[in-house]
Amino acid sequence: MPGVLPEGEPVPADGSLPATATRAVGARGFGVYVHVPFCASRCGYCDFNTYTADELGGGASREGYADTVLAELALAARVLGDAPPPRVDTVFVGGGTPTLLPADDLARILDGIDRAWGLAADAEVTTEANPESVTPESLKTLRAAGYTRISLGMQSAAPGVLAILDRRHRAGRATEAAREARDAGFDHVNLDLIYGTPGESADDFAASLAQVVAAGVDHVSAYALIVEDGTRLAARMRRGELPYPSDDVAADRYLAAEAALDAAGFSWYEVSNWARTPAGRCRHNLLYWNGGDWWGLGPGAHSHVGGVRWWNVKHPAAYAKRLAAGESPGLAREVLTPDEAHTEDVMLRLRLASGLPLAVLDDAGRAGARRALADGLLDPAGYAAGAAVLTLRGRLLADAVVRDLLP
Ligand SMILES: C[S@@+](CC[C@H](N)C(=O)[O-])C[C@H]1O[C@@H](n2cnc3c(N)ncnc32)[C@H](O)[C@@H]1O
Ligand code: SF4
What we know:
Layout: H1 19-22, E1 30-36, H2 53-56, H3 65-79, E2 88-95, H4 103-117, E3 119-129, H5 136-145, E4 149-155, H6 159-164, H7 173-183, E5 188-195, H8 202-214, E6 219-224, H9 232-238, H10 247-263, E7 267-270, E8 273-275, H11 283-289, E9 293-297, E10 302-305, E11 308-312, H12 316-324, E12 330-335, H13 338-349, E13 356-357, H14 363-374, H15 380-384, E14 387-388, H16 392-396, H17 398-405
Parallel strand pairs: 1-2, 1-9, 2-3, 3-4, 4-5, 5-6
Antiparallel strand pairs: 6-8, 7-8, 10-11, 11-12, 13-14
Helix pairs in contact: 3-4, 3-12, 4-5, 8-10
């Protein structure tokens, strides 16, 4: 959830959608995202839409939050009343720190989603969690409530790196929490890593990868540190207190991640995501990347239904106020033009190991694909089978390949 929201046209007060959008809701799958905008403290690198107790001010509280989300869900069920999705395939509760809410509140939200639209029998239900904000008991409550997957923000195994990132958990706590999650009955557990933090050595990152592999999780996400404008980290770098991340170091770290994870039996399925088995891939994120429909509940949450994309007001107090008045919390929306939809499709699907069908490209895009193939950025076997599939070198240069495939 980026800090800056795009412009757009207003959302009607009742949240209604054009009939063209609701005609085939869920034809490519339907998911629900729930944003939980609370954190115990703000990590210096993070510009997500999240608030500490001090930042929150009046008009919104953690205590009333589950009910506010359920009010938006009731509105969503009314909006899709005549054309409900066939079922909910995936739920993803993200943040912020969802596990700052009591596990019972997370259970109540999931129950509300099931009542509104019906969870598929095999639905994937994920919550993000900060390692220090879960216990064996809370994990058992979440599992019993129907959550099937936990995604833990580990970031690093190195105490010095965790300190530069302002993380609250001690080194070792994330993998401990991952084991607790498995003991609580979660078959699907993810650990998030950040690489390229100033002060992180190659050995630090190798140790992070080794710990992730030893933790027995079935999914790993690894992201290069992004220095977001307006964050404390960006200010420290501007003042010269910390060096800016280096692209060469980030590339080395990515290659180290691929080597260690591949050796441990993980396969990449998206540039920043690896899973041990196909069943371990995050189906909710795959739904985003493959152009599915989802309703995003919560302040600042984005939704996409039938080519209409909208986003909610950002502040939790403004969000609660709209819903208390019986109005949609939608701030603005846009209908994707065919060109915009194509750009998005190329950007997202090229990053997948399954690749982008060459058939969706125009003549210029196909010429770009031939150049990328000749440069060793696309896989010859994938290309022969009709898809643009990035090679390892192509994954390092994915943004440049995207530019080559677009007009
Ligand atoms: C928004 S966080 C929510 C999860 C949870 N609050 C946590 O931090 O553990 C999701 C993930 O995004 C990644 N992330 C957030 N900001 C980032 C940044 N500036 N650069 C790279 N990765 C980032 C982190 O790996 C984090 O675990
Ligand atoms: S805990 Fe997660 S969401 Fe909260 S500030 Fe840190 S990175 Fe951002």
